[in-house]
Amino acid sequence: MENMKKKETLQVAIIPLIAVILINALIPFFTGSKMPLIVLSGSMTPMMMPGDMIIEESVDPDELQIGDVIVFHPPDSDKTDALVTHRIISLEEGEERTFQTKGDANNAEDDFKVPASNVVGKLIFVIPFAGYLPEISKHKNIFLFTVILPAGLIILDEIRNMLLYSNPVKARKVEKERKKIARRTSYSVKGKRLATFVLISGLIFAGIVVNNLGENGSLVLGKENTIKNPGTLSRVYVITPDDYGKRTDINFWYGVITSSNETQVYETQAIAPEGVITPSTWNQMNETKVIAPENTPATISTVPYILPVFWIISLAEINPYLPAAVEIGFYTFLSTLLLFPLWHRKSVIGKKKKKIKIRRLVAQWKRTLQLV
After folding, report:
1. Is the peptide bond before 252 cis (omega within 30 degrees of 0)?
2. Cα–Cα distance for residue pair 335/202, rounded to 1 Å
3. Distance CA 323, CA 217 (A)
4. CA-closest candidate to residue 225, choices 258, 250, 255
5. CA atoms within 13 Å, Cβ hemisphere of 165
6. ∠369-371-372 over CA atoms, to 5°?
7. What does the alpha-carbon distance between residue 303 and residue 321 come to, in Å, rounded to a whole number?
8. Half-sphere exposure of 247 (CA within 13 A, CB side)
9. Are strands 53-57 and 119-127 parallel, antiparallel or unpaired?
10. Comparing C-alpha atoms, which of 45, 115, 107 is closest to residue 76?
11. Among residues 132, 186, 226, 247, which one has the fewest Cβ atoms lying within 10 Å of its Cβ?
């Protein structure tokens, strides 16, 4: 009974808390201060990939600075609903503030300047692949199995409950039985087993991440800087200058370097006189050159590409070592969660007694048959 009371008290405390969190998270979407959008082009790769869903937040244009990624209506477009998400590379003050923008994957800046009145919001989060969900739902078979069938099962279950509870006598019996089962049911966590899974998973993923780490920490950039990836996984590097406004002066301050397993290799052959055989030269592309102003103090974070690039950039801005720690923690949590049935136990008091009674009855029945 004490466990039941504790459980009920915990539920009473947790449910309102969850409700408040959900309401606070959803209100901005209904009021329009936050808005989800789907990425359609590759102009901001690899930070945002086509098919990703982005969340933008309303912002005062006067608070924007160089390096921010903004959502805006292109001034040269006839479509009022057209939206572009690009990075601010420069700005001009005047009667109305204007922004020069550029897509991270584009070679040239946009051929227009964005007035402050055209700014819709600022990018705050990226959800990988979430933009494909609306497209998937358009396929009849997928829509049938992911929407129609689950909805049908829920409706049938609700109809069954309505019919069951329409009879007061049956309803009381069902509720009484459910309460009995609830009293006899208890949940427990196998602490030692859970700790073992967390430890083993943590060590495995720590080994994977550490084995594929690059340079992390503080550095002073030269005019030309080489970042290599001799590891087995692709890497994301993020360079954050001490002066945030100088970020766009670094070409390029973040990127993805393929692993030696995924290296793009091309062959070149030197020009030689006729009849002379020259050896082929193989060039590997698992490194990148970063051009920056001389003696720029900055921090660098180079981690395996196992989290979305936007997440890694956001974490690296806080601390260069944080992306690696989050990668280890995130995948340790996921693997432990997948092993949930092995460390979480549900037990019903009285089941063992029933099993013992059944075994005794079976044993008596066998003895009776032998006597006969």
Report:
1. yes
2. 9
3. 12
4. 250
5. 8
6. 65
7. 9
8. 22
9. antiparallel
10. 115
11. 226
In the chain, what is the greatest distance between 2 CA atoms, to the nearest angstrom?
107
Q: Which domains does the chain have, with CATH numbers?
A: 34-130 (2.10.109.10), 210-338 (no CATH)
- Across the range 59-63, mean pLDDT stands at 92
Query: For residue 5, is it left (φ>0), alpha (ψ between -120 and 50) or beta?
Result: alpha
| 27-31, 283-287, 319-323, 362-366 — most confident range | 319-323
Per-position DSSP letters for 164-220, written without gaps between them:
HHTSHHHHHHHHHHHHHHHHHEEEEE-HHHHHHHHHHHHHHHHHHHHHT----EEEE
- Helix (H), strand (E) at residue 227: strand 224-228
Residue 223: CB atoms within 10 Å = 11
Global pTM exceeds 0.90 = no
Instruction: Please give the C-alpha separations between residue 168 and each of 95, 157, 163, 256, in angstroms, as whole numbers.
Output: 73, 18, 10, 65
DSSP 305: S
